[in-house]
């Protein structure tokens, strides 16, 4: 694959509106007319390129956004969905049928974990959850029934790094599809370049960046994306997680500032992680030299976008974590809220919120401690001031 710069790919797109507008026109239709009945038939059969049939299948606005995201990820094609979970569930149901098997990282988004653990077994699809950094365990868990190897580039919430290149070698050897959720590291990491087959994003987070909508995307080969849209067999066509055109147009406009936002998120998070770590706060950030995957991640990233905007700190206990989050909100350091990628800093205690689907026992085993706070660092203009304010809160609560 060509050596590409994901931000340039976004910058270089040229979509004009039908009246010469600098933004593409928004398609405000659920259905489309045909000049000839034969063309409608061909479109149903999937062989009338450039014709629209019905907006659950595809719409001009969704195709613009999909094209931009495919360009960003360096994939042949992409398909947007109404949420990240819509992208994940459609992909897994397209790739796996009854009796088949998934090998997945155990440190993944709580909703994805719940879907694999509780929902897919209804269809006799079983998942083995593994330590994704243990490549031998990953390979040993693959059976003749395995269809998918699933991971997050940087895992939620523990910020473990998946060695995508090494995983793709294992996936190819056993003929399984490597699916990577790249939600935490858009632009920073280009999983397709590293050998992933399918890349998923929750657009809800960094890519849209304004916490005003949910959205998702599946990036992959032309063949795979077409199979998802197939009128008779396709998961996105038949399950219907379709994004609305107005929203697709809005996300496309926000995508254009992603490169500068990611740089600022990374710059701010690096600064805070280094400073807090130096003060003795238990800090996890993949850009810290003491992070177990620091060296590998450094080689994986497109350096100009840095190590990302996510970090965790350990406040010592759940009570202290809760008190610290409440105080930080009171002092307007950020909001006590799930999600990430907003201009404001967002924090939550993953044990009690986004990972609550994972049983307590398993949370302990993965190192998800009670006092853990997951922080999505905002676009703060003055991060030194933010640092001072956090330290003040910690001192008041005797965490420091
Ligand atoms: C939020 C999130 C999802 C789910 O996306 P939604 O848009 O909320 O459906 C999936 N994976 C990761 C890593 C996430 O952070």
Concise description?
Its cofactor is pyridoxal 5'-phosphate. The modification N6-(pyridoxal phosphate)lysine is found at residue 205. The protein is α/β, with parallel strands linked by helices and 400 residues long.
Detailed description of the structure:
The structure is a single chain. This protein is of the alpha/beta class. The protein folds into two domains: about 5-255, 3-Layer(aba) Sandwich (Aspartate Aminotransferase, domain 2); about 260-395, Aspartate Aminotransferase, domain 1, CATH 3.90.1150.10. The protein is about 40% helix and about 15% strand. The protein has helices at about 5-10, 35-45, 60-75, 85-95, 110-120, 135-140, 165-175, 220-230, 235-240, 245-255, 260-280, 295-300, 320-330, 360-365, 385-395, and strands at about 75-80, 100-105, 125-130, 145-150, 175-180, 200, 215-220, 280-285, 310-315, 335, 345-350, 370-375. It has a seven-stranded mixed sheet, with helices on both faces. Strands 8-9-12-11-10 form a five-stranded mixed sheet, covered by helices on one side. Helix 7 (about 165-175) links the parallel strand 4 and strand 5. Helix 3 runs parallel beside helix 10 and helix 11 (about 260-280) crosses helix 15. It is globular, with a radius of gyration of 21 Å. The mean pLDDT is about 95. Bound molecules: pyridoxal-5'-phosphate. The site of pyridoxal-5'-phosphate has 16 residues, from helix 4 and helix 5.
């Amino acid at each position: 694959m060509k050596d590409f710069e994901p931000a340039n790919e976004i910058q270089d797109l040229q979509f004009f509106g039908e009246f010469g507008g600098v933004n593409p026109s928004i398609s405000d239709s659920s259905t489309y007319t045909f000049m000839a009945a034969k063309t409608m038939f061909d479109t149903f059969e999937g062989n009338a390129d450039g014709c629209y049939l019905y907006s659950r299948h595809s719409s001009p606005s969704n195709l613009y956004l999909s094209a931009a995201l495919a360009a960003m990820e360096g994939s042949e094609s992409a398909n947007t969905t109404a949420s990240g979970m819509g992208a994940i569930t459609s992909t897994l149901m397209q790739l796996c049928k009854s009796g088949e098997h998934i090998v997945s990282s155990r440190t993944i988004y709580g909703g994805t974990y719940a879907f694999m653990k509780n929902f897919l077994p209804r269809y006799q699809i079983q998942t083995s959850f593994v330590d994704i950094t243990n490549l031998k365990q990953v390979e040993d868990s693959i059976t003749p029934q395995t269809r998918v190897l699933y991971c997050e580039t940087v895992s939620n919430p523990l910020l473990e790094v998946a060695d995508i290149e090494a995983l793709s070698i294992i996936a190819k050897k056993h003929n399984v599809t490597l699916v990577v959720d790249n939600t935490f590291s858009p632009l920073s990491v280009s999983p397709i370049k590293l050998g992933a087959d399918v890349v998923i994003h929750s657009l809800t987070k960094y890519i849209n960046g304004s916490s005003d909508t949910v959205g998702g995307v599946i990036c992959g080969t032309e063949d795979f994306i077409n199979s998802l849209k197939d009128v008779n067999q396709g998961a996105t066509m038949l399950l219907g997680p379709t994004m609305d055109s107005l929203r697709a147009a809005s996300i496309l406009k926000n995508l254009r500032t992603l490169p500068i936002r990611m740089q600022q998120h990374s710059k701010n998070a690096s600064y805070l992680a280094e400073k807090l770590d130096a003060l003795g706060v238990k800090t996890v950030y993949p850009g810290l030299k003491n992070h177990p995957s620091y060296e590998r991640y450094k080689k994986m990233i497109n350096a100009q976008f840095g190590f990302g905007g996510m970090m965790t700190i350990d406040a010592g206990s759940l009570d202290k974590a809760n008190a610290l989050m409440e105080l930080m909100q009171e002092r307007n350091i950020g909001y006590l809220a799930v999600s990430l990628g907003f201009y404001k800093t967002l924090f939550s205690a993953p044990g009690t919120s986004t990972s609550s689907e994972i049983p307590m026992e398993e949370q302990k085993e993965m190192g998800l401690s009670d006092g853990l706070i997951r922080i999505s660092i905002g676009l703060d203009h003055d991060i030194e001031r933010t640092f001072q304010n956090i330290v003040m809160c910690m001192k008041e609560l005797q965490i420091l």
